Amino acid sequence: MPLGVVLFEVLSGKQAVDSSLDEEHWGLVNWAQESIREDSCLHNNPKQRPTIAEVVACLESVLALQEKANYTLHPPGMKIFGNKVPMFLSSFIEDKSVGSKRSLDIYFGTIGGENRILRRFEFQTIIVATENFSETNKISAWGDGEIEAMYKGRLQNGQGVLIARHDSNSYYQEYKNEVSLLVQLEHENLLHLLGYSIGGTQVFLVYEFAVYASLDRLIKDHECTLLDWNKRNKIILGVARALLYLHQHGPFRIIHCGVNPENILLDESLDPKLSSFGFARCLAISEADCIKEKSVGGIPGYIAPEVYQTYRLSTKADVYSFGVLILVTITGCTVPNHYLYNSSGHMTFEEYVWTNWLDETSSDIIDPRIDVDSSSITRVIHIGLLCVQADPADRPTMEECFTGSEIKENVTLLKIAEEKVGRKRCLELYFETIGGEHKTLRRFEFGTINVATEKFSENNKISRWGSHDFIVYKFSFQGRLQNGQGVSIARHNSGSRSQDYKNEVALLVKLEHENLLKLLGYSIEGTQVFLIDEFAVCESLDHMLFDRGCTLLDWNKREKIILAVARVLVYLHQHDVIHGNVTPGIILLDESFDPKLSDFRHDNQLSTKDDVYKFGVLILETMTGYNIH
């Protein structure tokens, strides 16, 4: 309430109470409430007052246009204590029941400010563009209730457009909400609002988009063969980009509140556009990520459980809807709110996908129209499962979804699934999928490891080293690999600092450099995990440096090692990776003294300058042979 009073004091130049006027006009607030009616900061019902974010958006548009209006427009205004308030301010707060054509014209003509003017189309133009709203041009009666129908059309200049028909009195606030947002948003995967038209009691919003179909229509049409895996993956990524923009990179933060296949529109190239912002909610940049909202639109099955249960609305609600969208797009299931049945009985859609993933039968639930066996599908299913977790705190952000952060993605899934199938099976799933479709890790039987290391003999041991407190052994597979290549193995305890070696695996499957270890495969036995690297290790640098009896490290070899470590650190930093543990103990050497950097330490508090500092210490230790540690 105080903000509304202040705004009117600023606009009128008068105090909140002015006893010099007639008694009935003493109170600025009383007069304003009677004159301007609803949808203002002064509304008696707090729930009917706009949020600060909505006020800011409104004022920015008003102030931008006011500068222009002072010199050119001179619109009619209404008197408040002798001063004029521009008529376009009243268009934000008019009487909904009136829905007058004039007030709507003013609203649409001013909402975009001077930088975004919406084009007004004659109603006859809309009729011609849609061929008199023919059924052939009708996309669907869709949206979350606020849209009567959607039509594709073509203007006289040949431009393809999308036209949404609304009743000017029904869902009044919803379509105005959409307009007020879209005039300020700009993204390749969001609809671009071109203009509007008014015909009788109907309002038509015209979008600059040659729509082909909605995603749900193509999924439901079992005769449609257009949605191969590449197309579906492109659609999922496009929606992810749009949501990331709304949540983090737009002019203000927005919760869409309507992510589902009906609201994903596709052009003839099947490039997606996210639509239907009628129930979207704004968050100020500094505002808490969660708000209370009792009235939220959406389709059952796509609405996050916390929205139903506690009315708590956050960006994680969009993440949940996005997760369901992923699973529906991959499976072709169009009724995610219904129970499904298998040999285990009835279960929710999410439980059904979870069960098949854990049973390694994900291929059974993939839409048969996807004629490809790709591990990238499995990875996207993983992301979808992460997004539909019951607790919002466990869901990733859209940034984590879009970047496909393997560390976050797979480790989180592992944590969830351990309760369902046990640690060993979860570790196997982790290693099987962490490399995506481009890097498959080989699973070695423990017997192979046992024989190759001569039962982990002391003769084959390199050292116990590194931040993870694991043991490295050197050994040869003695012809088990076709090329006879030597390899090294690191033994870990699966329950001791498991996050560290999982992070290392996630990095090594993505990175490739001649001075980084190349991960070949893994083995699991009991509580122990063995990582096998494609590298015939001879010794670690610290053993050679600090062994006073070793004379192999002349200056040329030391310089070669230092330069190689410098090169690999440059590579890591270019890929936004901080090693965090550059010491002689984690630099492994082969018989030619070519170094390999190993043992990554995952610490969000570190920076590249920490690596630089430790590299400087490494140089001093390598040159002097003195163990600073």
Automatic annotation (TrEMBL):
It is a single-pass type I membrane protein. InterPro entries: Kinase-like_dom_sf, Prot_kinase_dom. One of its GO terms (cellular component) is plasma membrane. Keywords: ATP-binding, Cell membrane, Glycoprotein, Membrane, Nucleotide-binding, Receptor, Signal, Transmembrane, Transmembrane helix. Residues 136-413, 435-629 form the Protein kinase domain. It is found in: Cell membrane. The keyword Transport does not apply. Pfam families: Pkinase. Coiled coil: none annotated. It comes from the Eukaryota. GO terms for biological process: defense response to oomycetes. One of its GO terms (molecular function) is ATP binding. The keyword Nucleotide-binding applies. In the C-terminal section; belongs to the protein kinase superfamily. Ser/Thr protein kinase family. In the N-terminal section; belongs to the leguminous lectin family. This is Protein kinase domain-containing protein. It comes from Lactuca virosa.
